[in-house]
Each structure stands twice: as C-alpha cells, then as structure tokens.
Amino acid sequence: MSWSSRIALAALLLTGACGFEPLNAPRGGGSVPAALSTVQISNIPDRAGQYLRNYLRDEINPYGVPGNPRYRLDVQLAEQRADIGLRRDDIRTRTNLTLEAEYRLVALADGKTVLQGRSRTLSSFDILINDYSNVVSEQEARQQALRQIGADIRTRLALHFRRAEPTG
To answer: pLDDT (tens digit, 9 = 90+) per residue, 100-109?
Structure first.
C-alpha cells in the first residue's frame, strides 16, 4: 500500500470516528432534503431576483414546486456597484458588484418566522473597450454572485432543518 493510500485510509477512519455525518444523511424520522422539499420560494423582483429564485428552486426543490408547502422563503435582494479601478484620465477599468440578500423562512401554519438571515457577496469584473464584452462580464459577475448567495441560503436552510430534526 502506497504512502498516499495509507494517509487516505487513515483520514477516512478518523473522519468516521469524529462523529462526522453528511448534512443530507437521514437522521431520526426524516431528512434534510425532505424538509427542504416543503419550502415554497416567493417571487423575487427584477431579473437578478428571478435568476436567484430559479437557482434556489433548483437546489431546494429539484423535483418541482411542493404540492403542500409547510414553509415560505421570502428574499429581498439589493445590488450596489462601485468603480474601483480608475486610470489617470478618469476612465474606469474595474467594478465591484456587491449583492446582499435578506431572507426569512416563514412557517405557513402559524405565520411565524422560524429563520432569518442575510447573505452578502462581492464579485468584480473588468471594464473593457468593447461594450458587448462589458455587458457579458457584468452578467457573469452578477450570476456568479447570485449562485454564491443561493448556495449560502440553501446551506443555512439545510442547517436549520438539520438542527430541528430529532436525533432518534
């Protein structure tokens, strides 16, 4: 057995001994994916909000919109742009795009907020001579930032549902 194989085997054995358990593994009477599938995602205004909602829907409800939702996820999205690269002749060369999402998970049974939080990310893009390149660069930076926010929200929801599960 090679040295790297021994290290990998030791890491696997130690990981199992430390109590590591995958977030999506079933525990007690339910599982995180089953709990996530009960979340209805509210509309989010604007094109960026539509992109974020679609990403969240794909990640949280991969099998479609829940028929009998137990929760509603409300998200408010804000965007800021700041030019950070300026040449001596005051022509901008780089822009920061900051996206911030405030979210609330509401139990539909009683209307109470069971989880709320904020996710923020920063993405940058270069300003080029070609206008089309600028549009594409900005769209890519925005979509990357929205994917990061969506992944963060999904992870926080999964952790919330994991903590709420009985340890059975």
So the answer is: 999 999 999 9
